Amino acid sequence: MLKLNQDKIELIVFSSQQHVKKGCDSGWQPFGNYCYILLVSESSPYDDVLDARRACLRHGTDLAFIRSEDEQRFIITLFPGTSVTEIYLATSDAIEEDHFIHFDGTALDFTNWGDSEPNNYPTFGGENCVAIIYSCDGRAVGDWIDVPCLFNPRLINGAICKKPVDEPPTDSSSDSFQDKFHMVKESYMMNNAIFSINVPTYVDCMRLCSEDTTCLSVNYNRRRLTDYNCVLNSQSRLVSRNLTSDSGVAGFSLGEWTYYEQRYRGY
Ligand SMILES: [Ca+2]
Ligand SMILES: [Ca+2]
């Protein structure tokens, strides 16, 4: 199935070898209690890991990370017959160099690093995100490599999205959308604002973010009783180091800001 998506043509890959059981939407493949889809950006590679993440967000979920050898084996079965070369995973060491965690903040239970990886190759300012190999000279299928988060020099054109079986559709009007965020107190994401707006509560700020597929985190500040500032960010701390505990904004003192980022749901 071809889907026009802004300036990219995104190919949703169906595998004829997989039986889609009840619980996964059309085009999604089941494994365990989860559904997976491989997205291939056909017209151009993903700009960066955020671009790949947004591709999954448009499908109501987020990039996958890999928890076990069995899951890795399953994911590799999605690659044959496609033009995918390398695929972003939801794993990063942006918060602490050489300490990789998944985007939900959990530790790695399984890794499959290729030879000499991760090497934090310095040419583009280090490498804090992770891709899995399908087709790359000198690499084995399934090798993991660390890659830059915010620049894609390797022509990474794949994204694997994952969601729990029977997950209800994303409903930003539901109260449960608050569960999609977690808080980092007294912190502020610098230089990644999409826009800033006054809203009465932090819940309203989260709601705005959850309704905007380009929004990955928010800063919330209550300056005065009648002046509340909500900043929607295009990045999260998991792919950017621009999180600071010093607001750096004139007129605001430390501790007034609260940073919330969208958490991964269900896995
Ligand atoms: Ca790194
Ligand atoms: Ca590397």
Automatic annotation (TrEMBL):
Q: Which residues form the Apple domain?
A: 161-256
Tell me which residues make up the C-type lectin domain. 31-149
> Which InterPro entries does the entry link to?
C-type_lectin-like, C-type_lectin-like/link_sf, C-type_lectin/snaclec_domain, CTDL_fold, Pan_app
Q: Which organism is it from?
A: Paralvinella palmiformis
Pfam families listed in its UniProt record: Lectin_C, PAN_1
Q: Which residues cross the membrane?
A: none
Q: Indicate what this protein is called per its UniProt record.
A: C-type lectin domain-containing protein
Family annotation (SMART domains): CLECT
